[in-house]
């Protein structure tokens, strides 16, 4: 029976395994022979001595930080959650680097869109200093807001001498880990200003690939006077957009200005809305004989100057459906234009190509939005307007709906992304889920937030989700199905593993053996351990958990029998046979079984348990202890 340890997914080991599957011939005694690998790759190996490379002090360490497994876990916090039993949304408190490591197995290739609004490195931002040797310990010290010498943490000031370096070292490992979570058709949007936009783009080119750069959006974020920099009034920021793999199309909702262009009416107005027209004659395409043909209108022959945009069959069908508009010009020739309706035949609104310059929504709207939620006393400054994030979330990739997707924000701040996700779901009937991740950074004692009782940013973010969700439901109370809108969230908090580490010295080995009779950290609950096991097995944290009693012992069934856990002591063969009965009752496609390592009544019971489970079609590799 294999035993679980307290570490997260080892990404390097996973990548080596994948490499071995593709190029088994480049391995010698489980080590990569790089000379052989170069031979196999042939012409695809860069052999020039001088080539462009974006580097900075600490980059190698940042790479190692991303590769180092975490010894952390996520502990459930029901009392701070909303609609725990039904929600599929997550709010996670903790250093996002550690959290991203812990999510690698459960959410790898599952996130459709990531939006982040990281520190802009203006000199006043909190920039987290990572420690690749023990970043979890580092986090636990930092959440107390003192370092190992008892010194209070400070901002990343320009006088530090490592102004850009510190920021890059923070961003690089987080973006590397975030990419793993994106689906093949997933995209990431990153808000930034001109302090670091150039460096961020170079980092993203390296992590996501230059070919997967989509756009550097210019967002006009202020409608009044902005900050004055070197003579110019600054009223814009940037949003970088990258995909995980090359995509063929990205479409967005039409804005109000574009919708107004569909101002013509015909007999289809009630079902298709207004329409606009587009010319069907073109002179820009190359000569194609099948696009050069006559059509007839009111007995007159119409021949294009060069050719038509559509084939003859498609154009004749459109004419028969009254989807073509003919206008006779003064010179006696005809203008032939196709009607484009605001709504498609299935009732959905037409979508368009997003433009690279966004004129709003503005920061002032974000402030107003928070003021309304918090009764005129916004506890969070400089929050993005939810309409901006909603617009980004609404984008469709490769013409596929994203209504069932997962949205991740690992610099979630005041939870604008969660607010935007719930708003969009209410508007279009979607069932998008969100995952918010935020460091519990303390609020300034002089701030409105602190005076209002919010001791850290996470408290603000959670309260905003509660209030925003209730407000959305109230504003849409007459809308069909609004009662099914998911406005809840499960709270998890980053902590050290529930499993005691085995690190004995000769001096205390006897005491350590006594402690290991129970190998869980004191004060941790069975539910804490269950969620850690779910993370290690790569199971979604929102999967349903059912508690059953089997021969007097508590048994957890996760995902309708996909995972069955028993953490009780004095486990007998009656319990094991009862677990087999439970597995047969639930009849999952595959089942994994986890027992407490020292929970069996005798070693012989443990041995026989494995044989019983194997006889009942449970693979030995799926039987674990913890």
TrEMBL record:
InterPro entries: DNA_methylase_N4/N6 (IPR002941), DNA_methylase_N6_adenine_CS (IPR002052), N4/N6-MTase_EcoPI_Mod-like (IPR002295), SAM-dependent_MTases_sf (IPR029063). The keyword Repeat does not apply. One of its GO terms (molecular function) is DNA binding. Residues 111-434 form the DNA methylase N-4/N-6 domain. GO terms for biological process: DNA restriction-modification system; methylation. It comes from the Bacteria. Belongs to the N(4)/N(6)-methyltransferase family. This is Site-specific DNA-methyltransferase. The lineage of its organism: Bacteria, Bacillati, Bacillota, Clostridia, Eubacteriales.
């Amino acid at each position: 029976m294999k035993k679980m340890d307290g570490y997260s997914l080892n990404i390097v080991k996973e990548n080596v395994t994948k490499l071995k599957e593709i190029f088994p011939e480049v391995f010698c005694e489980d080590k990569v022979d790089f000379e052989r690998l170069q031979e196999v790759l042939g012409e695809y190996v860069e052999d020039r001595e001088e080539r462009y490379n974006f580097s900075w002090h600490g980059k190698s360490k940042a790479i190692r930080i991303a590769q180092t497994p975490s010894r952390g876990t996520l502990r459930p916090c029901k009392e701070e959650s909303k609609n725990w039993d039904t929600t599929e949304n997550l709010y996670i408190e903790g250093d996002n680097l550690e959290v991203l490591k812990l999510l690698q197995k459960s959410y790898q290739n599952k996130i459709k869109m990531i939006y982040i609004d990281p520190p802009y490195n203006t000199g006043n931002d909190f920039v987290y200093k990572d420690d690749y040797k023990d970043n979890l310990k580092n986090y636990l010290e930092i959440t107390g807001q003192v370092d190992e010498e008892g010194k209070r943490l400070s901002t990343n000031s320009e006088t530090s001498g490592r102004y850009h370096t510190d920021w890059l070292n923070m961003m690089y490992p987080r973006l590397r880990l975030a990419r793993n979570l994106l689906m093949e058709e997933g995209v990431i949007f990153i808000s930034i200003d001109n302090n670091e936009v150039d460096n961020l783009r170079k980092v993203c080119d390296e992590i996501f690939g230059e070919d997967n750069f989509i756009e550097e959006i210019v967002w006009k974020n202020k409608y009044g006077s902005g900050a004055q920099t070197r003579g110019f009034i600054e009223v814009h920021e940037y949003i970088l957009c990258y995909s995980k793999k090359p995509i063929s199309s990205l479409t967005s909702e039409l804005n109000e200005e574009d919708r107004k262009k569909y101002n013509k009416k015909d007999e289809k107005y009630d079902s298709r809305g207004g329409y606009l027209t587009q010319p069907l004659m073109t002179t820009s395409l190359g000569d194609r004989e099948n696009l050069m043909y006559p059509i007839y209108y009111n007995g007159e022959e119409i021949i294009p100057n060069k050719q038509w945009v559509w084939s003859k069959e498609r154009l004749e069908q459109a004419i028969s459906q009254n989807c073509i508009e003919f206008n006779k010009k003064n010179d006696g020739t005809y203008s032939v234009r196709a009607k484009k309706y605001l709504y498609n035949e299935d009732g959905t609104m037409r979508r368009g190509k997003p433009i690279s310059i966004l004129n709003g929504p503005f920061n002032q709207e974000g402030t107003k939005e928070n003021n309304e939620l918090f009764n005129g006393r916004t506890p969070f400054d400089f929050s993005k307007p939810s309409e901006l994030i909603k617009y980004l979330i609404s984008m469709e990739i490769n013409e596929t709906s994203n209504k069932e997707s997962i949205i991740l924000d690992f610099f979630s701040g005041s939870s604008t992304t969660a607010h935007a996700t719930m708003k969009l779901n209410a508007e279009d009937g979607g069932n998008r889920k969100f995952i918010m991740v935020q460091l519990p950074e303390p609020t300034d004692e002089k701030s409105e937030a602190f005076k209002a009782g919010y001791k850290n940013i996470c408290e603000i973010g959670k309260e905003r989700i509660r209030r925003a969700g209730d407000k959305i439901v109230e504003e849409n109370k007459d809308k069909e199905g609004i009662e099914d809108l998911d406005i809840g969230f499960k709270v998890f908090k980053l902590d050290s593993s529930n499993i005691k580490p085995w690190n004995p010295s000769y001096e205390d080995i006897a005491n350590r053996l006594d402690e290991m009779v129970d190998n869980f950290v004191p004060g941790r609950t069975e539910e804490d351990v269950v969620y850690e096991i779910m993370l290690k097995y790569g199971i979604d944290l929102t999967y349903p958990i059912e508690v059953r009693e089997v021969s007097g012992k508590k048994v957890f069934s996760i995902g309708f029998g996909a995972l069955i856990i028993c953490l009780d002591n004095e486990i007998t063969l009656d319990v094991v046979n009862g677990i087999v009965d439970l597995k047969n009752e639930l009849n999952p496609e595959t089942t994994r079984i986890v027992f407490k390592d020292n929970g069996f009544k005798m070693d012989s019971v443990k041995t026989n348990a494995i044989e019983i489970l194997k006889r009942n079609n449970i693979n030995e590799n799926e039987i674990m202890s913890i």
